[in-house]
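Reminder to self: keep the SMILES exactly as supplied, no canonicalising. Ligand is S-adenosylmethionine.
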Amino acid sequence: MESAKQMKLYDRVERVHNELRALGIADDAPLDVAQLTPFDQYHYHGTAAVDEAIAALDIDASSRVLDVGAGIGGPARYLAATAGCHVTALELQPDLDATGADLTRRCGLQGRVEHVRGDILDGAPAAGTYDAVISYLTILHIPDRARLFAAIHRALRPGGGLYIEDFTLLREADEAERETLRVKVQCPYVPSPATYVVHLVGAGFRNVALEDVTASWTSFIAERLAAFRADRPRLDAIHGTDLADGLEDFYATMASLYGAGVLGGARITARR
Ligand SMILES: C[S@@+](CC[C@H](N)C(=O)[O-])C[C@H]1O[C@@H](n2cnc3c(N)ncnc32)[C@H](O)[C@@H]1O
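Structure tokens returned for the bound complex:
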């Protein structure tokens, strides 16, 4: 990503701490995963989307999972706490990675969730060993799909499963939409659903299945914006107007891209 902080979702990672403080939770107090899940899932439909991956890939306590683009570790912690598996949470941005590691320690999950700062394009931390790779709303930031999917393929053990939630392109974007995607969403490339599948098959994946989830994402994104706007007085008070303005603009941008029918959502599964 060129300049990740142009994307307001990633600016000011302290947002999660503001929310916890507002609940009366001190900065170093122990935490439960359930206290964090309203704030640490940087994708759509929160932990329900992680339950989908657990079911689709049969993740259980014996599984070793790689989460590509782990954010502040929300999906990784929920997965480890729910399925009992071991998760390697790989994250590019140092501040998100450090915040994720701190929250994991406060949840007492450091034995099951390992935070690694790194770029998936440089390869997975322990290639060839993972039973499952999951990735939520991260692939959209990485235009070099050949190198990316080769790295993910190599990460998995033979027979291992892949679960992705990501953007697809439903119609040609106009110039303004392309610019918005590139700058505000840090998304320089989005393929059609059919092209997405071709890329995965080309990287050697089998049993590639793509489910279109555009309708449910479009509703989620519209409702997220409405809820954020309704909650502005509280959000301004705990985060400051500047941070809240930036996030509202990002949520409105996503609502307009989905509302205009240019972006779609996909849930993709495949096997090595
Ligand atoms: C929308 S966030 C989603 C975070 C997390 N998957 C979740 O759902 O909560 C996408 C994340 O991918 C990370 N990312 C982008 N490119 C990456 C790369 N090449 N390697 C590792 N992480 C990357 C970003 O820094 C960001 O934290």
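Points to follow up:
DSSP finds eleven helices and seven strands in the chain.
The radius of gyration is 18 Å.
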